Amino acid sequence: MNAPAEATLLGLGVYRPRRVVPNAEIVEAIDSSDEWIQQRSGIRSRRWAGDDESVQMMSVSAARDAITAAGLEPGQVDAVIVATVSHLMQTPAVAPAVAHELGLERPAAFDISAACAGFCYGLGLARDMVRGGSARHVLVIGVERLSDITDRSDRGTAFIFADGAGAVVVGPAPEGTAGVGPVVWGSDGEQFDLIRQREDWRDVVASDDPAMPHLVMQGNAVFRWAAFEMGKVAAEILDRSDLTLDDIDAFVPHQANRRITDVMARSLHLPERIAVAHDIVDQGNTSAASVPLALHRLVSEGAVQPGQRALLVAFGAGLAYAGQVVTVPPTVR
Ligand SMILES: CC(C)(COP(=O)(O)OP(=O)(O)OC[C@H]1O[C@@H](n2cnc3c(N)ncnc32)[C@H](O)[C@@H]1OP(=O)(O)O)[C@@H](O)C(=O)NCCC(=O)NCCS
């Protein structure tokens, strides 16, 4: 259909929900303190979506900005991948509805479920679609409304999870360049139970007292896995891309916990000139949305420039992980 080409990021857009929720607002329900949360996770505040800020609405808003940033008309996008675990309808996927609202013309449209690794999984697919010629311009959206599936009284998760969306357009790279590198991805299903929905929908319905099946997490085990295994994955991404840290300008890990980012940065021996994303401080952990949101903040604050390279690595429930090196697109909105 299309002549094969290397892939690149053409545009980036994000949506941050309006409502800022400081630690002070949530500590009472979990018998915690602002100081404890900041010290253990780095989070000062997070954003929780209001009634009108649905998964679809946040996706459309971020995607519109990504398409405009890419200098494209909506009709030029021919595939939409939405990574999310919080579109609370089993079927259909949210992607076709997002595409329709954006005015796209009959694109391929589907959701993927790879939790916090979802955006980087989607980016890996989009790169292969562009290189393989099955699509020319692919919209990849990471979006979550985790506040819907977070137990506000659970000490282990209530302060971590948050809402938001980020989107990129992946398209053909100018000849001789490649703006999205090869994906390194994988999973460890033996640790399937470490972060999960508490029970499946059939058990909820069969229960005498049906309630939303919230996320539950074994925080210590997740911390150890992420902090020590994901540094190795980041190193593998560089190897697979034929790059070294000398070629990298920004490190954008999934914003799970600031301490995990710090351990990874130390294990990678990141030089000080490499900008490290800490979007979690004011945004919380937004799962599939966290990597594009964090990249967007680094670019908006001038810590990394268009044309520079960012090392992405994302990880979470599954346990699933994925990452790649990207070139920062010319325009972000
Ligand atoms: C959740 C997390 C911050 C908890 O920190 P931790 O140091 O592992 O906490 P622990 O569960 O070992 O508990 C340590 C102490 O803090 C207390 N504690 C636990 N949660 C608390 C809270 N919300 N507020 C205050 N104290 C709390 C415990 O009771 C315990 O007290 P004790 O020492 O007197 O027994 C940490 O495990 C973590 O960040 N894990 C990774 C989570 C993550 O990133 N998930 C997303 C992956 S996508």
From TrEMBL:
Places the protein is found: Cytoplasm
Domain Beta-ketoacyl-[acyl-carrier-protein] synthase III C-terminal: 238-327
Presence of keyword Lipid biosynthesis: yes
Active site: 116, 254, 285
Pathway this chain belongs to: Lipid metabolism; fatty acid biosynthesis
A molecular function GO annotation: beta-ketoacyl-acyl-carrier-protein synthase III activity
Pfam families documented for this protein: ACP_syn_III, ACP_syn_III_C
Homology family: Belongs to the thiolase-like superfamily. FabH family.
Assembly: Homodimer.
Stated role: Catalyzes the condensation reaction of fatty acid synthesis by the addition to an acyl acceptor of two carbons from malonyl-ACP. Catalyzes the first condensation reaction which initiates fatty acid synthesis and may therefore play a role in governing the total rate of fatty acid production. Possesses both acetoacetyl-ACP synthase and acetyl transacylase activities. Its substrate specificity determines the biosynthesis of branched-chain and/or straight-chain of fatty acids.
HAMAP family given in the database record: FabH (MF_01815)
The protein's name in its UniProt record: Beta-ketoacyl-[acyl-carrier-protein] synthase III
Organism (species): Nocardioides marmoribigeumensis
Native organism taxonomy: Bacteria, Bacillati, Actinomycetota, Actinomycetes, Propionibacteriales
Gene symbol of the encoding locus: fabH
